[in-house]
Amino acid sequence: MLNAISMATGDGDSSRVKRYHRTHRWLSVAGFVLDLAYLAALLLTGWSVGLRRFAESETARPALALLIYLSLFALIHEALDLPLGYLNGYWLEHRYELSNLTPGGWAKDRLKGLAVGGTLGTLAFEFVYWTMRRWPGQWWIVSAAAFICFFLLLAQLGPVVLLPIFFKFKPVEDPALTERLMELSRRAGTRVGGVYEWKLSEKSKKANAALTGLGNTRRIVISDTLLGNFSPPEVEAVLAHEFGHHVRRHILRGLAVEIATTIAGFYTVNVALRAWGPSLGFRGLADFANLPLLILVTGALSLVLLPLVNLHSRQMEREADAYALRSIASPETFISSMEKLAAMNLSERRPAAWIEFLFHSHPSVEKRIAFARNWAR
Ligand SMILES: [Zn+2]
Questions:
Q1: Are 348 and 18 in contact (CB under 8 A)?
Q2: Neighbouring-strand partners of residue 195
Q3: CA nearest 209: which of 183, 230, 184, 180?
Q4: 68-120 pLDDT, tens digit each
Q5: Cα 41 to ligand 1 centre (Å)
Q6: What spacing in Å lies between the alpha carbon of 116 and ligand 1's midpoint?
Q7: What is the distance between the alpha carbons of residues 209 and 222, in angstroms, rounded to a whole number?
Q8: What is the distance between the alpha carbons of residues 327 and 336, in angstroms, rounded to a whole number?
Q9: Using only C-alpha atoms, what is the Rg of the chain?
Q10: Rounded distance, CA 310 to CA 29, Å?
Q11: Are 217 and 169 in contact (CB under 8 A)?
Protein backbone atom coordinates (compact mmCIF):
# COMPACT_ATOMS: atom_id res chain seq x y z
CA MET A 1 0.00 0.00 0.00
CA LEU A 2 2.65 2.53 1.04
CA ASN A 3 4.66 1.66 -2.03
CA ALA A 4 1.69 2.15 -4.30
CA ILE A 5 1.05 5.55 -2.75
CA SER A 6 4.60 6.84 -2.99
CA MET A 7 4.78 5.60 -6.60
CA ALA A 8 1.60 7.39 -7.48
CA THR A 9 2.30 10.68 -5.74
CA GLY A 10 4.85 11.67 -8.37
CA ASP A 11 3.75 13.65 -11.40
CA GLY A 12 1.13 11.95 -13.57
CA ASP A 13 0.42 8.25 -13.68
CA SER A 14 2.67 5.21 -13.51
CA SER A 15 2.76 3.11 -16.69
CA ARG A 16 0.94 0.36 -14.77
CA VAL A 17 -2.04 2.67 -14.11
CA LYS A 18 -2.03 3.82 -17.73
CA ARG A 19 -1.94 0.25 -19.06
CA TYR A 20 -4.79 -0.81 -16.77
CA HIS A 21 -7.05 2.01 -17.95
CA ARG A 22 -6.06 1.65 -21.61
CA THR A 23 -6.91 -2.08 -21.56
CA HIS A 24 -10.16 -1.39 -19.74
CA ARG A 25 -11.13 1.23 -22.33
CA TRP A 26 -10.33 -1.02 -25.30
CA LEU A 27 -12.30 -3.91 -23.82
CA SER A 28 -15.25 -1.55 -23.24
CA VAL A 29 -15.04 -0.25 -26.82
CA ALA A 30 -14.93 -3.84 -28.11
CA GLY A 31 -18.04 -4.69 -26.06
CA PHE A 32 -19.81 -1.62 -27.41
CA VAL A 33 -18.94 -2.50 -31.04
CA LEU A 34 -20.09 -6.10 -30.49
CA ASP A 35 -23.46 -4.91 -29.12
CA LEU A 36 -23.84 -2.56 -32.06
CA ALA A 37 -23.05 -5.36 -34.54
CA TYR A 38 -25.55 -7.69 -32.85
CA LEU A 39 -28.38 -5.14 -32.96
CA ALA A 40 -27.59 -4.07 -36.54
CA ALA A 41 -27.42 -7.72 -37.70
CA LEU A 42 -30.82 -8.48 -36.12
CA LEU A 43 -32.35 -5.50 -37.92
CA LEU A 44 -30.68 -5.64 -41.34
CA THR A 45 -30.77 -9.42 -41.94
CA GLY A 46 -34.41 -9.79 -40.89
CA TRP A 47 -33.42 -12.15 -38.04
CA SER A 48 -35.40 -10.03 -35.57
CA VAL A 49 -38.57 -10.55 -37.66
CA GLY A 50 -37.69 -14.26 -37.84
CA LEU A 51 -37.40 -14.47 -34.04
CA ARG A 52 -40.74 -12.69 -33.67
CA ARG A 53 -42.39 -15.12 -36.16
CA PHE A 54 -41.04 -18.07 -34.18
CA ALA A 55 -42.32 -16.60 -30.89
CA GLU A 56 -45.76 -15.96 -32.39
CA SER A 57 -45.94 -19.50 -33.80
CA GLU A 58 -45.71 -20.77 -30.21
CA THR A 59 -48.49 -18.62 -28.73
CA ALA A 60 -51.25 -16.24 -29.81
CA ARG A 61 -50.88 -14.01 -26.74
CA PRO A 62 -48.72 -10.94 -27.46
CA ALA A 63 -47.28 -10.68 -23.92
CA LEU A 64 -46.21 -14.34 -23.96
CA ALA A 65 -44.77 -14.07 -27.48
CA LEU A 66 -42.75 -11.04 -26.34
CA LEU A 67 -41.47 -13.05 -23.36
CA ILE A 68 -40.22 -15.80 -25.73
CA TYR A 69 -38.62 -13.19 -28.01
CA LEU A 70 -36.93 -11.42 -25.06
CA SER A 71 -35.58 -14.70 -23.67
CA LEU A 72 -34.01 -15.69 -27.01
CA PHE A 73 -32.71 -12.14 -27.58
CA ALA A 74 -31.05 -12.09 -24.13
CA LEU A 75 -29.68 -15.64 -24.40
CA ILE A 76 -27.90 -14.94 -27.71
CA HIS A 77 -26.62 -11.61 -26.34
CA GLU A 78 -25.24 -13.28 -23.21
CA ALA A 79 -23.44 -15.93 -25.29
CA LEU A 80 -21.82 -13.19 -27.41
CA ASP A 81 -20.97 -10.94 -24.47
CA LEU A 82 -19.62 -13.59 -22.09
CA PRO A 83 -15.96 -13.68 -23.27
CA LEU A 84 -15.52 -9.89 -23.12
CA GLY A 85 -17.46 -9.75 -19.85
CA TYR A 86 -15.03 -12.28 -18.39
CA LEU A 87 -11.97 -10.38 -19.66
CA ASN A 88 -13.18 -7.01 -18.36
CA GLY A 89 -14.82 -8.17 -15.13
CA TYR A 90 -12.50 -10.95 -13.99
CA TRP A 91 -9.25 -11.32 -15.94
CA LEU A 92 -8.26 -7.63 -16.01
CA GLU A 93 -9.09 -7.01 -12.33
CA HIS A 94 -7.02 -10.04 -11.30
CA ARG A 95 -4.14 -9.14 -13.58
CA TYR A 96 -3.84 -5.80 -11.75
CA GLU A 97 -4.41 -7.39 -8.33
CA LEU A 98 -7.63 -5.46 -7.73
CA SER A 99 -9.96 -8.42 -7.27
CA ASN A 100 -10.58 -11.01 -4.58
CA LEU A 101 -13.27 -12.82 -6.61
CA THR A 102 -12.97 -16.55 -7.24
CA PRO A 103 -14.04 -17.84 -10.69
CA GLY A 104 -17.10 -19.40 -9.00
CA GLY A 105 -17.91 -16.13 -7.25
CA TRP A 106 -17.64 -14.26 -10.55
CA ALA A 107 -19.98 -16.77 -12.27
CA LYS A 108 -22.46 -16.52 -9.38
CA ASP A 109 -22.49 -12.69 -9.59
CA ARG A 110 -22.93 -12.86 -13.37
CA LEU A 111 -25.94 -15.19 -12.96
CA LYS A 112 -27.44 -12.98 -10.26
CA GLY A 113 -26.95 -9.94 -12.50
CA LEU A 114 -28.67 -11.76 -15.36
CA ALA A 115 -31.58 -12.76 -13.11
CA VAL A 116 -32.07 -9.26 -11.69
CA GLY A 117 -31.45 -7.47 -15.01
CA GLY A 118 -33.56 -10.02 -16.89
CA THR A 119 -36.52 -9.61 -14.52
CA LEU A 120 -36.40 -5.80 -14.51
CA GLY A 121 -35.79 -5.66 -18.30
CA THR A 122 -38.67 -8.06 -19.03
CA LEU A 123 -41.07 -6.05 -16.86
CA ALA A 124 -39.94 -2.81 -18.52
CA PHE A 125 -40.30 -4.06 -22.13
CA GLU A 126 -43.59 -5.87 -21.42
CA PHE A 127 -44.93 -2.60 -20.04
CA VAL A 128 -43.63 -0.49 -22.95
CA TYR A 129 -45.13 -2.77 -25.63
CA TRP A 130 -48.38 -3.04 -23.67
CA THR A 131 -48.72 0.78 -23.71
CA MET A 132 -47.92 0.74 -27.47
CA ARG A 133 -50.77 -1.73 -28.08
CA ARG A 134 -53.18 0.13 -25.81
CA TRP A 135 -52.40 3.81 -26.53
CA PRO A 136 -50.52 3.94 -29.86
CA GLY A 137 -50.64 7.77 -29.89
CA GLN A 138 -49.70 8.53 -26.28
CA TRP A 139 -47.71 5.44 -25.30
CA TRP A 140 -44.45 7.34 -24.94
CA ILE A 141 -45.91 9.79 -22.40
CA VAL A 142 -47.46 6.97 -20.35
CA SER A 143 -44.25 4.92 -20.48
CA ALA A 144 -42.05 7.89 -19.56
CA ALA A 145 -44.28 8.70 -16.56
CA ALA A 146 -44.23 5.07 -15.38
CA PHE A 147 -40.43 4.83 -15.78
CA ILE A 148 -39.93 8.01 -13.75
CA CYS A 149 -42.09 6.60 -10.90
CA PHE A 150 -40.10 3.37 -11.13
CA PHE A 151 -36.75 5.26 -10.88
CA LEU A 152 -37.99 7.02 -7.74
CA LEU A 153 -39.04 3.68 -6.24
CA LEU A 154 -35.69 2.12 -7.17
CA ALA A 155 -33.72 5.00 -5.60
CA GLN A 156 -35.63 4.34 -2.39
CA LEU A 157 -35.63 0.52 -2.42
CA GLY A 158 -32.32 -0.13 -4.21
CA PRO A 159 -30.11 -0.03 -1.09
CA VAL A 160 -32.39 -2.28 0.95
CA VAL A 161 -33.60 -4.66 -1.80
CA LEU A 162 -31.11 -4.78 -4.70
CA LEU A 163 -27.69 -4.17 -3.12
CA PRO A 164 -28.05 -7.00 -0.53
CA ILE A 165 -28.50 -9.47 -3.43
CA PHE A 166 -24.86 -8.84 -4.32
CA PHE A 167 -23.22 -7.72 -1.04
CA LYS A 168 -23.41 -8.32 2.69
CA PHE A 169 -23.97 -5.39 5.06
CA LYS A 170 -23.80 -5.06 8.83
CA PRO A 171 -23.88 -2.07 11.22
CA VAL A 172 -20.43 -0.55 11.86
CA GLU A 173 -19.30 -1.74 15.29
CA ASP A 174 -17.12 1.27 16.15
CA PRO A 175 -19.29 3.60 18.33
CA ALA A 176 -16.80 6.49 18.12
CA LEU A 177 -16.75 6.40 14.30
CA THR A 178 -20.54 5.99 14.10
CA GLU A 179 -21.03 9.00 16.38
CA ARG A 180 -18.52 11.02 14.36
CA LEU A 181 -20.47 10.31 11.13
CA MET A 182 -23.86 10.92 12.75
CA GLU A 183 -22.52 14.30 13.89
CA LEU A 184 -21.43 14.97 10.28
CA SER A 185 -24.98 14.15 9.11
CA ARG A 186 -26.45 16.54 11.71
CA ARG A 187 -24.14 19.31 10.49
CA ALA A 188 -25.40 18.61 6.95
CA GLY A 189 -28.99 18.82 8.22
CA THR A 190 -29.98 15.33 7.09
CA ARG A 191 -31.31 12.26 8.83
CA VAL A 192 -29.65 8.90 8.16
CA GLY A 193 -30.93 5.49 9.23
CA GLY A 194 -27.54 4.12 10.24
CA VAL A 195 -23.89 3.49 9.36
CA TYR A 196 -23.24 0.15 7.64
CA GLU A 197 -20.13 -1.81 6.81
CA TRP A 198 -20.25 -3.00 3.20
CA LYS A 199 -18.40 -6.29 2.80
CA LEU A 200 -16.62 -5.49 -0.46
CA SER A 201 -13.41 -7.40 0.41
CA GLU A 202 -15.02 -10.71 -0.61
CA LYS A 203 -14.88 -9.45 -4.18
CA SER A 204 -12.50 -6.54 -4.52
CA LYS A 205 -9.46 -4.76 -3.12
CA LYS A 206 -10.93 -1.38 -4.15
CA ALA A 207 -12.42 1.06 -1.62
CA ASN A 208 -15.78 2.80 -1.74
CA ALA A 209 -18.31 4.62 0.42
CA ALA A 210 -21.68 6.17 -0.26
CA LEU A 211 -24.79 7.80 1.09
CA THR A 212 -27.53 5.63 -0.45
CA GLY A 213 -31.32 5.60 -0.47
CA LEU A 214 -34.01 8.24 -0.19
CA GLY A 215 -36.11 9.30 2.79
CA ASN A 216 -36.27 6.59 5.43
CA THR A 217 -33.94 4.20 3.54
CA ARG A 218 -31.10 6.77 3.53
CA ARG A 219 -27.98 5.23 5.09
CA ILE A 220 -24.22 5.53 5.08
CA VAL A 221 -22.40 2.53 3.62
CA ILE A 222 -18.60 2.17 3.90
CA SER A 223 -16.64 -0.70 2.36
CA ASP A 224 -14.65 -2.83 4.81
CA THR A 225 -11.62 -2.24 2.54
CA LEU A 226 -11.93 1.49 3.24
CA LEU A 227 -12.55 1.05 6.98
CA GLY A 228 -9.40 -1.10 7.25
CA ASN A 229 -7.12 1.44 5.56
CA PHE A 230 -8.45 4.91 6.44
CA SER A 231 -8.15 6.79 9.72
CA PRO A 232 -11.45 8.05 11.25
CA PRO A 233 -10.78 11.65 10.05
CA GLU A 234 -10.15 10.30 6.52
CA VAL A 235 -13.40 8.29 6.60
CA GLU A 236 -15.10 11.51 7.72
CA ALA A 237 -13.55 13.42 4.78
CA VAL A 238 -14.87 10.85 2.28
CA LEU A 239 -18.37 10.95 3.77
CA ALA A 240 -18.32 14.76 4.07
CA HIS A 241 -18.10 14.81 0.25
CA GLU A 242 -21.16 12.54 0.06
CA PHE A 243 -23.09 14.84 2.40
CA GLY A 244 -22.02 17.73 0.16
CA HIS A 245 -24.17 16.17 -2.58
CA HIS A 246 -27.09 16.23 -0.18
CA VAL A 247 -26.55 19.82 1.04
CA ARG A 248 -26.28 21.14 -2.53
CA ARG A 249 -29.47 19.25 -3.53
CA HIS A 250 -27.68 17.10 -6.11
CA ILE A 251 -30.06 14.18 -5.65
CA LEU A 252 -32.93 16.41 -6.80
CA ARG A 253 -30.84 17.83 -9.64
CA GLY A 254 -29.87 14.31 -10.70
CA LEU A 255 -33.50 13.23 -10.67
CA ALA A 256 -34.50 16.29 -12.71
CA VAL A 257 -31.89 15.38 -15.34
CA GLU A 258 -33.15 11.78 -15.32
CA ILE A 259 -36.75 12.92 -15.77
CA ALA A 260 -35.82 15.21 -18.68
CA THR A 261 -33.72 12.56 -20.46
CA THR A 262 -36.40 9.88 -19.95
CA ILE A 263 -39.07 12.06 -21.59
CA ALA A 264 -36.69 13.07 -24.41
CA GLY A 265 -35.69 9.41 -24.85
CA PHE A 266 -39.22 8.04 -25.20
CA TYR A 267 -40.18 10.88 -27.52
CA THR A 268 -37.17 10.18 -29.77
CA VAL A 269 -37.91 6.44 -29.80
CA ASN A 270 -41.50 7.15 -30.82
CA VAL A 271 -40.37 9.32 -33.74
CA ALA A 272 -37.63 6.88 -34.84
CA LEU A 273 -39.80 3.74 -34.71
CA ARG A 274 -42.49 5.46 -36.79
CA ALA A 275 -39.99 6.83 -39.31
CA TRP A 276 -37.82 3.73 -39.88
CA GLY A 277 -40.12 0.86 -38.84
CA PRO A 278 -41.92 0.34 -42.20
CA SER A 279 -38.73 0.17 -44.30
CA LEU A 280 -37.29 -2.46 -41.91
CA GLY A 281 -40.34 -4.71 -42.36
CA PHE A 282 -42.18 -4.14 -39.07
CA ARG A 283 -45.99 -4.40 -38.95
CA GLY A 284 -46.36 -1.29 -36.81
CA LEU A 285 -45.27 0.41 -33.65
CA ALA A 286 -46.24 -2.48 -31.33
CA ASP A 287 -44.38 -5.08 -33.45
CA PHE A 288 -41.70 -6.10 -30.96
CA ALA A 289 -39.37 -7.18 -33.76
CA ASN A 290 -38.42 -3.46 -33.64
CA LEU A 291 -36.80 -3.95 -30.20
CA PRO A 292 -33.19 -3.78 -31.57
CA LEU A 293 -34.05 -0.43 -33.19
CA LEU A 294 -35.53 0.83 -29.90
CA ILE A 295 -32.32 -0.11 -28.07
CA LEU A 296 -30.10 1.40 -30.79
CA VAL A 297 -31.95 4.73 -30.65
CA THR A 298 -31.81 5.00 -26.84
CA GLY A 299 -28.14 3.96 -26.93
CA ALA A 300 -27.29 6.59 -29.55
CA LEU A 301 -29.13 9.25 -27.56
CA SER A 302 -27.31 8.42 -24.31
CA LEU A 303 -23.99 8.47 -26.16
CA VAL A 304 -24.75 11.96 -27.50
CA LEU A 305 -25.87 13.18 -24.05
CA LEU A 306 -22.98 11.53 -22.16
CA PRO A 307 -20.52 14.48 -22.36
CA LEU A 308 -23.25 16.88 -21.16
CA VAL A 309 -24.30 14.59 -18.32
CA ASN A 310 -20.64 14.20 -17.31
CA LEU A 311 -20.04 17.96 -17.48
CA HIS A 312 -22.95 18.47 -15.10
CA SER A 313 -21.71 15.65 -12.87
CA ARG A 314 -18.15 17.06 -12.61
CA GLN A 315 -19.65 20.41 -11.63
CA MET A 316 -21.63 18.75 -8.82
CA GLU A 317 -18.54 16.79 -7.68
CA ARG A 318 -16.59 20.05 -7.34
CA GLU A 319 -19.41 21.53 -5.26
CA ALA A 320 -19.43 18.43 -3.02
CA ASP A 321 -15.63 18.70 -2.58
CA ALA A 322 -16.01 22.37 -1.60
CA TYR A 323 -18.62 21.42 1.00
CA ALA A 324 -16.38 18.61 2.35
CA LEU A 325 -13.43 21.00 2.75
CA ARG A 326 -15.67 23.48 4.60
CA SER A 327 -17.12 20.92 6.99
CA ILE A 328 -13.97 19.01 8.07
CA ALA A 329 -11.20 20.20 10.36
CA SER A 330 -8.26 20.04 7.94
CA PRO A 331 -7.86 19.87 4.13
CA GLU A 332 -4.89 17.53 4.74
CA THR A 333 -7.19 14.63 5.66
CA PHE A 334 -9.19 15.25 2.46
CA ILE A 335 -5.95 15.15 0.44
CA SER A 336 -4.67 11.99 2.14
CA SER A 337 -8.04 10.26 1.65
CA MET A 338 -7.87 11.16 -2.07
CA GLU A 339 -4.32 9.75 -2.28
CA LYS A 340 -5.40 6.51 -0.62
CA LEU A 341 -8.49 6.11 -2.79
CA ALA A 342 -6.45 6.71 -5.95
CA ALA A 343 -3.84 4.15 -4.90
CA MET A 344 -6.33 1.47 -3.82
CA ASN A 345 -8.57 1.91 -6.87
CA LEU A 346 -5.69 2.38 -9.35
CA SER A 347 -7.31 5.66 -10.49
CA GLU A 348 -5.93 7.70 -13.35
CA ARG A 349 -4.58 10.80 -11.64
CA ARG A 350 -4.08 12.75 -14.83
CA PRO A 351 -6.21 11.35 -17.70
CA ALA A 352 -5.95 12.87 -21.20
CA ALA A 353 -8.10 16.01 -21.36
CA TRP A 354 -10.46 14.63 -24.04
CA ILE A 355 -10.97 11.39 -22.12
CA GLU A 356 -11.81 13.29 -18.94
CA PHE A 357 -14.18 15.57 -20.87
CA LEU A 358 -16.06 12.75 -22.61
CA PHE A 359 -16.10 9.91 -20.12
CA HIS A 360 -15.33 11.01 -16.56
CA SER A 361 -18.10 11.79 -14.09
CA HIS A 362 -15.53 13.10 -11.55
CA PRO A 363 -12.72 15.66 -11.95
CA SER A 364 -9.32 13.94 -12.07
CA VAL A 365 -7.61 13.12 -8.74
CA GLU A 366 -4.91 15.65 -9.56
CA LYS A 367 -7.47 18.47 -10.01
CA ARG A 368 -9.32 17.53 -6.83
CA ILE A 369 -6.09 17.58 -4.80
CA ALA A 370 -5.01 20.88 -6.38
CA PHE A 371 -8.41 22.32 -5.44
CA ALA A 372 -7.91 21.21 -1.80
CA ARG A 373 -4.38 22.69 -1.73
CA ASN A 374 -5.73 26.01 -2.99
CA TRP A 375 -8.40 25.83 -0.33
CA ALA A 376 -5.72 25.33 2.34
CA ARG A 377 -4.10 28.59 1.25
ZN1 LIG B 1 -19.40 12.61 -5.37
A1: yes
A2: 220
A3: 230
A4: 999 999 999 999 999 999 999 999 999 999 999 999 999 999 999 999 999 99
A5: 39
A6: 26
A7: 4
A8: 16
A9: 23
A10: 18
A11: no
